[in-house]
């Protein structure tokens, strides 16, 4: 991708080979300007260095790299999250599980976020509910480094633990266990398409049928939920019925699913009710 020095900001916004929103984001990144400044300085011509920086960013996007990785951040639940190839890019679909968790979390309640990645769920809950005691786990130290930075940047009080699922928890219990685990089946064609090509494979797929991580959480959470506590799980667009069946088979009560803004059953959950 070549961009000639001397081209104006306004002209580039109209002629760069991406959609208008991506053109604007990359112009802001390359030039260090706000959205308002792009408008007020639309007649300003780019220097040779600026043209080179912009060309490099545009080329990365043309080659398929996600915008969030190029600029190093993504907005989620009204907050700004740092992202890197060590973590999944937070998506609007996941805001549903945050909303459900906040609605169900009692005052001073304890929430566990399993496989936290960028910290999107844990940080969003802790930022909204300063009274909550939020713990977040991930097996990846690189992911935890990103999540810690996001908690600090957003003023969220979260305890982070490196853990292979429940291994580091001993006998701790929580009012809510929430997770957006790897749920794409191995070999799914979507893993080789779009942004997913660049995201950490271990955070996308369980390298099996897409249900194994969900099953580990469903069975393991019984030990770590208080009586009446909620387990909330994000899953694939076609997995709701299977997840509900697994929850029911494991003895949970009030098993149900919730739809995202697109009308897809995106989160399933249930309460723990011990018999006897």
UniProtKB/TrEMBL annotation:
Transmembrane domains' residue ranges = none
What this protein catalyses is:
L-glutaminyl-[peptide chain release factor] + S-adenosyl-L-methionine = N(5)-methyl-L-glutaminyl-[peptide chain release factor] + S-adenosyl-L-homocysteine + H(+)
Record keywords: rRNA-binding included? no
| GO-annotated biological processes | methylation
Q: Would I find Transmembrane among this entry's keywords?
A: no
Where's the Methyltransferase small domain? 104-188
| InterPro entries per record | DNA_methylase_N6_adenine_CS (IPR002052), HemK-like (IPR004556), N5-glutamine_MTase (IPR050320), PrmC_N (IPR040758), RF_methyltr_PrmC (IPR019874), SAM-dependent_MTases_sf (IPR029063), Small_mtfrase_dom (IPR007848)
Q: Name one Pfam family in it.
A: PrmC_N
UniProt-annotated binding residues for substrate: 180-183
Per UniProt, residues of the Release factor glutamine methyltransferase N-terminal domain are 16-72
Q: Which keywords describe this protein according to UniProt?
A: Methyltransferase, S-adenosyl-L-methionine, Transferase
A Gene Ontology molecular function term of the record: nucleic acid binding
Residues binding S-adenosyl-L-methionine: 115-119, 138, 165, 180
EC identifiers of the protein: 2.1.1.297
Top-level lineage group: Bacteria
The family note in this entry says:
Belongs to the protein N5-glutamine methyltransferase family. PrmC subfamily.
HAMAP family reported for this sequence = RF_methyltr_PrmC
Q: What does this protein do?
A: Methylates the class 1 translation termination release factors RF1/PrfA and RF2/PrfB on the glutamine residue of the universally conserved GGQ motif.
Name it. Release factor glutamine methyltransferase
Organism name: Massilia horti
């Amino acid at each position: 991708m070549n961009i000639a020095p001397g081209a104006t900001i306004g002209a580039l916004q109209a002629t760069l080979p991406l959609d208008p929103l991506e053109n604007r984001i990359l112009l802001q990144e390359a030039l260090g300007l706000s959205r308002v400044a792009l408008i007020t300085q639309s007649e300003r011509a780019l220097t040779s260095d600026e043209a080179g920086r912009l060309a490099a960013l545009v080329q990365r996007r043309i080659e398929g790299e996600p915008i969030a990785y190029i600029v190093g951040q993504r907005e989620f639940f009204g907050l700004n999250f740092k992202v890197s190839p060590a973590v999944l890019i937070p998506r609007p679909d996941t805001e549903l599980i945050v909303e459900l968790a906040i609605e169900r979390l009692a005052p001073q309640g304890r929430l566990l976020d399993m496989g936290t990645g960028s910290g999107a769920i844990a940080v969003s809950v802790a930022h909204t509910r300063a009274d909550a005691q939020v713990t977040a786990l991930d097996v990846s130290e690189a992911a935890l480094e990103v999540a810690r930075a996001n908690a600090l940047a957003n003023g969220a009080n979260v305890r982070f633990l490196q853990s292979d699922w429940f291994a580091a928890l001993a006998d701790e219990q929580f009012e809510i266990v929430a997770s957006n685990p790897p749920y794409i089946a191995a070999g799914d064609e979507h893993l080789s398409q779009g942004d997913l090509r660049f995201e950490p494979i271990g955070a996308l797929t369980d390298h099996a049928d897409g249900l194994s991580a969900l099953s580990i959480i469903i069975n393991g959470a019984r030990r770590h939920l208080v009586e009446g506590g909620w387990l909330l799980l994000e899953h694939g667009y076609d997995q709701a019925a299977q997840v509900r069946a697994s929850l029911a088979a494991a003895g949970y009560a009030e098993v149900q699913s919730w739809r995202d803004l697109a009308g897809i059953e995106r989160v399933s959950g249930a309460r723990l009710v011990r018999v006897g």
